[in-house]
Protein 1
Amino acid sequence: MSSGFSLFPSAASVTAHRTDTLCFALVGFSTLIAFIITAVIVVFCIRYRRNARVDRHHAPTDAKGLEIIWTLLPLAVFLGLFVWAARDFTRLYRPVPDALPVYVVARQWMWKVEHPNGRREVNEMHVPAGQPVRLLMTSQDVIHSFYVPAFRVKQDVVPGRYTASWFEATQTGDYHLFCAEYCGTRHARMTGRVHVMAPEDYAEWLDAGADAPRIVERGFDLFRQHGCAGCHHAESSVHAPELAGLIGREVHLEGGGRLIADETYIYDSIIEPDKDIVAGFDPIMPAFKGQLDEEEIMAIIEYIRSMPLETPVQRSSHD
Ligand code: CUA
């Protein structure tokens, strides 16, 4: 991390240079267009001012060719920039296979981070260099925004919803983490550090926290403690939807709607089960609003994600 003033943060992720190139192109083209328009205004102001002795006869009343050019050329340039930006944007939001998951819960005014092996930290995030890291994020209170300038990563963190982002750090070192969404009095102090470590140092660091229960184990314990297993179990006598393989699956809802089950859908189903009833099931699930916090629900989601797809049990005609 550079000390002192610098106009640009260091570029320490695989996408940083692409983002910078796009940013420079946008600034460059906008400046060029602004410069051309300003130049024409200035030249015309001087040349055709009231007292200027210029030939004003035969002034053209239309110039179709010129109009077509000055309309289509900037249109093409800026549509091109849009397509370029859209490609980079979708690349940033497409999940990367084999990414290392890291779970982030934001609250006023701190970043709570959990690793798959159960190691937790606050306002710090340790990650290995040279490996894609996928962040799954939610907020406990208001909207925050996870922002690491050196990685060119900025993603809103929204209560009641899960957002994801990924980066692959290229250089070891410490990088600023900011909250980039005004979230109350101490918003400006909602900062942290991302420590990018060599893979072997990272493995060592992770091992030092191996005594904590893994996030999936924590999820399993919560799943049992809150009685979820009583209904959501293949052999249960209560008719409840099967959860194994749920994330990413299409779910048909009572009333004819359908959706792709994601983390937010599971969150909603726990907090407000009556919101989306699965077709063919009775709305019998109790709401867990106020009984589970965001980190606990995150753990339950990861437990559900980890459920093995066993030989499907024929449970109802609706599957
Ligand atoms: Cu959190 Cu601003």
Note: The first strand starts at residue 100 and ends at 107.
Protein 2
Amino acid sequence: MGDPPAAKTFYVTTPIYYVNDVPHIGHAYTTLSADVLARYHRLRGREVFFLTGTDEHGQKVQRSAAEQGLEPIELADRTVERFQAIWEALHISNDDFIRTTEPRHRRAVEAIFRRIDEAGDIYPGEYEGLYCVPCETFWTELQVGEGGCPSCGRPVETVREKSYFFRMSRYEKRLLEHIERHPEFIQPESRRNEILSFVRQGLKDLSISRTTFDWGLPVPTDPSHVLYVWFDALTNYLTAPGLGTDPERFERIWPADVHLIGKDILRFHAVYWPTFLMAAGLPLPRVVFGHGWWTVEGQKMSKSLRNVVDPLWLIETYGVDAVRYFLLREVSFGADGDFSHRAFIGRLNADLANDLGNLLSRTVGMIQKYCDGVVPEPSEETALEVAFRERAEAVMVAQDGFMAQCAFQKALINIFELVAAANKYVDETAPFKLAKREADRPRLRTVLYTLAEGLRFLRLLTDPYMPTTAAKIGCQLGIPALEPGRPFNEVSRWGGTEGGQTIHEGPKLFPRIEEDRAVAIHEEVARLADAEEAPPEEDAVEEIGIEEFQRVSLRTARIVAAEPVPKSKKLLKLTVEVGGGEQRQLVAGIAQDYTPEALVGKSVVVVTNLKPARLMGVESQGMVLAGETPEGKVVLATFDEPLEPGCVVK
Ligand code: ME8
């Protein structure tokens, strides 16, 4: 992003979210990334202003409220509470929360409108065009073609009405020049190129008022019009710093250092917004970063699928810092990503529980055991310590560069390479062996000091991403949070603590998610995903033809052996005979309702053409059919009369 002037407040924003939708991980993702930047700069002693909020005007919100029998403001009030509850649970450290229905916002909108009007860039005219209400976007006929709204595919409406226009065409050249001269203005680069080619096709004037509905701010010079919702919404970035209310503060905060947004709203931020600002004679934001799009379990986030990625549910299930870590670690910030619970659990177990969690618990455990719980002072360094220290210092230095590019994933990979290096250092120095010989005591002290200092670095490094975890690391190591007034470059210097502090052994940072619990989570996810789509009546179940049913190969089978799957409470490994002397190995989730002994000899029904799957490392070559009572007890399907293995079931 280039270097901003040091004294200026670091100003970071998220989009203001529409209040007709409920918050989901897409919103959480943008807000979380802004939170990381805000915490990062605060930690380094910079003044920070971090803004998020809600977009409450416009036809979409008005319609949605009407459908629910509510006034728009009632809908907004309800949704705002939900957003705020999620931000609190996610430990979002925003300094302000802007609502476009607040009086201060109206003043800012009036201020920018008048500036643009005075520049001669607003004129009355007649608008005729195609409008997509869900996207609050005008389109040309060429863009719409046969397929409806180019963005969401839904039908567009023809709108013809009197309208005020913004003379956007006048700023085409200046905008192009600005984008060309400031490669950091639109990021990542692929998005910058998209916008460049869009602007090169020519900018038309923009209709910025409407008369067909009234849920919006009035045009200051003509109250019979309401302002186009995007004109209203974008101005929020000026309202909160104080445009129209507090000029001094505004001067200190504006321009924004970075507007973080999803790629869906790039054009509004990288074309409309800078031209509004140019016309108003205000400086442009330094960076607009359009991040990628999340899907869920490989699918577009539909209403029902959103349940399984409800941020509150995720936080409850995995813990807040695991959610924060996963979202920023899983994909590169500019790229699209897929949210999968399997990947989540894998990462949580590998990176957080194993690598980071174990590093802390073994370090603290050894300091407790070998040094009576006091971090020792080091003596001479060997090449191993020098290499580790240099690595830690390099990771600390590298962070600025990553943050300047919003490269959160790269930053986390880099930080966790230090975790891996620390674990390797334990293996190489083998402190448990050093502890056995009195003569190795000084060396042992150096090793444990080095680990404690490495973890102190990790405490600083992880703080923006996982503030609670960082605090726990600090607490277990007996190091205070940042001492007020002590500059970061001092705190972040190797040797910043001399040793001598008492540690406090604590609970594990991240409990592992065991396979059983993972299975339970997957089942819960499947249940939630189905919940909204599940037909309310039985006769509404999707019909299939007999041919489709016949594709499933069902056979009778006899259980010849059964045993528990190690470390699993739910699973049993079964050996079944499926006819013709063939035996199959199956894994079935019936351990809570059947003992292995009770199963041997039973006739059951098995799906024999199911793709093999591995459950807790054991291959399952089919599936046993069973029913479930409302209380969740599993009952195997058997027969009225004994049947030999291998009979067709139909
Ligand atoms: O567009 N993946 O509000 P909005 C990643 N009010 N990010 C996602 C996402 C997904 N699947 N879904 C949503 C608006 N987002 C306007 C903004 S700003 C002046 C006005 C995030 O509620 C992403 O940041 O539709 C996206 O840009 C934003 O939510 C859209 O939120």
Note: The pocket of ME8 is lined by residues 15-18, 21, 26-27, 29-30, 55, 233-234, 236, 261-262, 264-265, 293-294, 301 (CB under 6 Å).
Protein 3
Amino acid sequence: MQTILTGVRANEEPTIGNFLGAYLPMINLSHEHANDSQINMFVPDLHSFTTPIDHSKFYAQIIKGIKYYMAAGLDVDNPNVHIYRQSRVPAHCELAWILDCFTPFGEASRMTQFKEKSEEHKESVTVGLFNYPVLMAADILLYDAKYVPLGEDQFQHLELARNIAIRMNNKFDQELFTLPASEAEQVKFMHLEKGLRIRSLTDPTKKMSKSSTNEKSKISLSDDPKVAAKKIMSATTDSEGVIRFDMVNQPGIGNLMAIEALFTHRDLQDVISDYAGQTRYGDLKTKVADTVSHFLSDFQEKVANISDGDVERVLEQGEAYANEVADKKLHTVQKALGLRK
Ligand code: ATP
Ligand code: MG
């Protein structure tokens, strides 16, 4: 059985960018493939402090993140659906060390996200921040995951995981790791034209990021729906004076249309047609504000109905499964390297 796998770091409240770019594609794929695939939605909790976080809130954030997966529609009663915490499966770190030793420093140094994040957090650039794409490769390769639904910003890291797998398969055994699908194949598998990139509401040339300290740039899944609506109403647009889908000259407007289409499960082209020739940006903003605030009220109600006990039960099953699969793969790798007979 093939494996489909993804995770969202628990460093901050996830945003609608995470929801649309990672949760939703994964949930859709889980509905489509839970009978022919293992569906692994894990919490990369060890990735969460590559940049500074508030550790006093961390544990609660992890548990809330799991409730979000469940509220988003993951069918946890299906025996092929698994939720687990990375930190409870020690093989992730053990394999990451091994992969480190087969990752050229130059290749890891090309990761643009490291360059961007180390600019942002100049005072705290850690080895962990540099190394996290290799841990991410371990997260994927341990489970032989072929499909990894991700937002557009993570495809470079997926390519690194592919390169590591190719290198180690050539050296040790072509069957050692399943090669994750290429970016083009991943996007096709998600029924998309390209990877998703929801933009910041205050600077639509950049992506929306949960770790941004500018609250107005992002809509978190726990935002009060009224506050979220206000953020949409004051989103940065442009002075072109006509509503067009043009991500180069009007990225703010294009972003709002993309958000509307994704939340209402409509074709982007239909949303674009609705506004063809219109000039009042306020009309589009009011519609999107309404869509997003309704989504948030509904989602937050679902989260409130999931108890900590529900989460514990799901983790117990998921972590038993994850340890079994991951240990088996780790043993195979240890054998190939000569660590074990
Ligand atoms: P951080 O600022 O902490 O890096 P993030 O918002 O980038 O947070 P991640 O935990 O790094 O979130 O990424 C989790 C998943 O969400 C990944 O699949 C990533 O590609 C996706 N994602 C993140 N931001 C966006 C976005 N703006 N649009 C679409 N997908 C996104
Ligand atoms: Mg990120």
Note: The first strand starts at residue 2 and ends at 7.
Protein 4
Amino acid sequence: MDGEYPLAQAFIVLWIMIPAYLANTIAVVTGGRFPIDQGKKLGDGNRILGDGKTWSGLLGGTIGGIIVGYVQLNFGTSFVDNIEPGIAGTNNETFWGDTPFLIFFLLAFGALFGDLTASFFKRRLNLNRGDKYTLLDMYDFIIMSLLLSFILGGGWLQTWIFDGTVPLFTLLIATPILHRGVNIIGYKLGVKNEPW
Ligand code: CTP
Ligand code: MG
């Protein structure tokens, strides 16, 4: 990819991040059991992470995100191949690199780990579970997802993300919209307590 196909780049980066976006959504469904911090508090009197961060969410979201990636890998051929002009020389088999499951894991686990890290800081700021911290809530998961994939993904991420300004700009714009949209749906369906 050489930055000549901005629209294709934008679609690709959103496609790539689907396991990360959905990992969070799946965690809301599977979550709620076995708080990771086991109810423990720090010196500031607040919970380490709070009841919103559980093993069932972390595990369910990670496994769920990997399954989502697997579905994309096996059923995304027409999508990837149609966008091919922008990613010449790639097909769906090579698209995810040599270690697709490692990538799915890093994207999904990274998203949940980012969300968990943010909760740690929210508790330090005396914010209760579910309290709003707009900027952090919207970007925490995507940042850690990208970071883990960048460090541990064996150079795979770099080929798609750090090519001109379009991919990162797309994430910057689309992430809050998708995040918010999915959460409102979850709220309406009754699986999420707050619409953010
Ligand atoms: N969830 C979970 N385990 C995780 C992540 C999420 O069980 N690792 C579930 C929890 O039931 C949580 C819900 O998904 O309440 C929504 O997630 P989120 O908005 O991230 O948590 P909050 O309840 O808002 O808590 P916090 O203030 O710590 O973000
Ligand atoms: Mg929240």
Note: The mean pLDDT is 91.
